[in-house]
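Page 47, continued from p. 46.
Same chain as before, 87 aa.
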Amino acid sequence: MDQREIRSLITTLSLFVPGHTNKRRIIPWRNKAISLADLAQIKLAGLHKTFTIPKNVERYVSIMDLDFETLKSPPYSNGVYVEQIMR
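Result:
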């Protein structure tokens, strides 16, 4: 996917992020790698594949790879709503 498509997708997905009106939390296209300190502010960001996610950050984020149509995320735990849906 190109930058324009990713920006559009991030904008669409941002509607599902609490506090999505805060522009510092949603970054449609980021031009540098994400660090652990960034996680305090950023809730959703579009990144180019050339930026690798550090292992210490990977534990806390979900990564959607649109080229391979995969989602990698930490395990979901203590989810009352999800448990009710799955019954």
